[in-house]
Amino acid sequence: MPIPYRARARRSLPRLGAALTAVVLTALAVVAAPAGAAGLGVRPPAVDVVGDDQADRYVGTGAILIPALGWQGAGDGRGLAAACQDCRWRITEVCSKSEFAAGGCRDISLGCPIGTDRVRVWLARPGEDWSLLGTTCLGDSPPAVRDDVAAVVRDRVVRLLPRLAAACDPPGGTLTWLPAVFRTAQPAGGLRHVAMDVAGLGVVLDARARWHWSFGDGTETWTSRPGGRWPDDSVAHTYHRSGSYLVRVDAVWRASYVVEGLGPFPVPGTLTQSGTLDLPVRQARALLVG
User: Fold this and answer.
1) Which residue among 142, 175, 199 closes a domain?
2) Structural domain boundaries enclosing 54
3) Over the stretch 95-122, which tens digit does the pLDDT of each residue have?
4) Rounded to two decimals, what is the model's pTM?
5) Strand order in the sheet with 167-169
């Protein structure tokens, strides 16, 4: 599903070529002015080229995920941008018009894939000034906001969770004072190192579960294993009275993800699956065999 970017895009300012074209056209207009204009005391208009030194492409707030490909920066700039939920951020042209006119930007190594440009990434913590994190390659879309990526990952986790099927051994019920063995038919290891793509970013997901059992007789317990078939008694319960019991199990999943080396970040909230089964428990009786 597409990412609903929260970034506010600003219309790109005219490139240097467009500005130089304007200068040339203005100069031609001045040359073509009537020759007597100066003699009449009319001064030709001054030619001023005013560039935007900041040249913001995108501005926004919140934690952003900067792709690893093309990143150039000192320290953990990508990590800072991904961790600061209350920060403001800006994406600007890597070379402003004034820098170019002053002879700068000659040693910039572009090295970006076709369809992307090298841009600067700025970050401002609450109450602080802007600081330059580094440069990266960016196409026609703003960087992904972490909260939006997390929402997409959560939706995919819901679809990937293994089905819960509550069952018991012996099948069909059990006897008093004999243990009943329960299972959910889910893997004990959960979901491990599941790779996916979200908004062009490489994401690796991990999810683990704990199981809450309610055996219907007032007894409850948490387990770190999903149970299994006999003789696996990792989840077992003994009933002391006959009757029909409603057994309920909840698988409570917690998941995290890593984005191109950033993280791990928690998948928001808990993910719960539930299952029930009706368990008849009969009284064991002694029989004399002659």
Assistant:
1) 142
2) 8-142
3) 766 666 676 665 555 678 888 888 999 9
4) 0.73
5) 167-169, 179-183, 236-238
